Every structure is written in structure tokens, then in C-alpha cells.
Known about the structure:
Layout: H1 2-15, H2 18-21, H3 25-38, E1 48-51, E2 59-62, E3 67-70, E4 77-78, E5 89-93, E6 98-102
Parallel strand pairs: 3-4
Antiparallel strand pairs: 1-2, 3-5, 5-6
Amino acid sequence: MLEEIERNLIRAFRDTGKQRLGQEPAERLRRIQALLDDYVPPDSPGAYLLLIAEGRVPEWSGVRTNWVIGRSAEANLQLLHPWVTHEHCRLDFDDEDWLLEDLSSQNKTYVNG
Length: 113
């Protein structure tokens, strides 16, 4: 399972421009690998996000279908940021692919940039 995660991380970081994140891809991969060394993903199959927030211990959260991301306390993943709307976007799985749908947010939803 960790090999698959590492392959996906490498693919994601190769596709993400370093100019927006201010770090070289190799440096970002080292930081992610250090987090994975400290916070091993759950053994059970499924999709997980490693939630990292200032002042909180990182934790793994299982991603389910129809996962709403937004500022709302009812959101599955709450992001308290001024650019994030109440119900900003939805993450869904259609048996083959993950889909990210913008829920008519004021500031739009961007993937990898």
C-alpha cells in the first residue's frame, strides 16, 4: 500500500508547479515521506487524507463518496479559510475515478494550481 501512495505522491508532485508552493519537488517529497514515516496510513483498504492543521496532531480521515468540503460545521472536511465557502466543493468516486465538483463557490475550485 505504501508503494502505491508513494507513486501517487510522485505523480502529484511532478504535476504540481513548484512556483506556487515555493519548494523543489524533491524537498516536498522528503517532507511528505517524513509525515508518512510518523503517521502510517490505516491498514484497511480505502481512500484516506492525512489532515494537517496548525496546532493539531495530524490524523488520517477516510474519504467517502459525496464528501463535502467547506467552512460549514456540517462539512465532511471543514476548511476555515476566507476563500472557502460554506459548501465549497464535493469529492466523489464513481467506481473508477475520483471527481471533484465545484458547488457554485464564489472563488471557484482549483486542482493543482
